[in-house]
Glycosyltransferase involved in cell wall biosynthesis
Amino acid sequence: MSVLYYDLSEQFLASGLKFKYYGISRTVMEVGYELARSEADVRFVIFSPGHERFFEVTPRIGADSPTGILDPGLPPEATPIRMRYTFPKPNKLRDLLYPVALWGARMINLRRWRAVPDGLVREVDLNGQRLVSLGRPKIMADYLTVTARAGVSIKLNPLLHDMIPIYEFAHSSQTMFCNNFTHDNHIVIKGSEHVLSNSAFTKAEIERFSASGHLPQVPGVTVVPLSHELRTTDETVVQRGPAEPYVLCVGILTGRKNLECVMEALLHLHTTGRPVPPLVLAGAQRKRTDSYLEQDRFDPIRDRINIVTNPNQAELRNLYKGALALAIPSRMEGWGLPLGEALWLGTPGLASTEAAALKEVGGDLAQYFNPDAPEELAALIDRLQSDPDAYAALKARIAARKDELRSWKDVAYGVLDAVDALEQPREAGTALP
């Protein structure tokens, strides 16, 4: 395979730190780490909004990185302000004033760039080059817009993580977000050589929305399933879970993530006289979650609720290991990293039947419940805590099949294989996988 460029702009825009443990940023970081350790000719780049050009960087990995895994190797002082380059619909006042704001942001970004030591990066011309990006579509849409204006044609191979915002129910109060998301994906798909997806479910959604006209025609989609692995790091563990076994939820919110189901399940255990295990909610603090939990109806189980805010990776590993089980009641997921991570560490996973991707992650190792039937989740929790023999057998079965679970190295090599297939000669009319 010829040289492949790998996009670290996602980390650059967040300094590689603020969101390093969650979702898309985690995926960019983990796959980048494995590619950096591979023998493939992979070079790492970031898009600078100040220069509106790409620069090749040398990422720091392992102990040399402040993330403990991988980062772009740039000082946090150089982190740019991001401004959109296009909008779904015209607006006379915005379109009149926005170029001034965009110019101002560029000046700030160029000033911040002065924090980058001389010789640390070099400008790179990606015209005709193959670029893989696992970041958010809005970042890709920005640089595709700018490079197209400059006459630069990139062979982009994006990995799309989900199409969830296209569903109105997912962000019923965030129409602008949904419109921007759809608009960005239009730009990304039109500008792609080939598309990767993180699950068979996401692939089917991309193709379905393309067929319905909500998205452009896709050039082809290859599934590269994400990982179950949660890598060991040397970070200090400060935040811990309760001493007794607890139900763990990672990144769970009200709405699509369906925190409501878990709370109703615990209330059901209480009202039916069954033991109520502690609940640990791990992730970013959200006002809507706090408001929801403040309801008087949760007073009978309030002392069982524990919140762990923004745990680092070492803390997250400890939380998984100490849990009775992980509960993931989502109505829709593109993949579902917490379920995979729980299974990787030998912790039972209780997953929603409504989110098809979770079945790809959990297979027959997870246990499933109807997310609209909290009593089903309550019954699963009650069995785990009241039948030690069945619980021990379940944990032994999960541990015995760990070799079947996917590592981040598997994901990285899946990306390389998908891109390598683009270079292989094919018979006329033969489609890519």
Summary: The first helix runs from residue 9 to 13. Residues 426-433 have pLDDT under 50 and may be disordered.
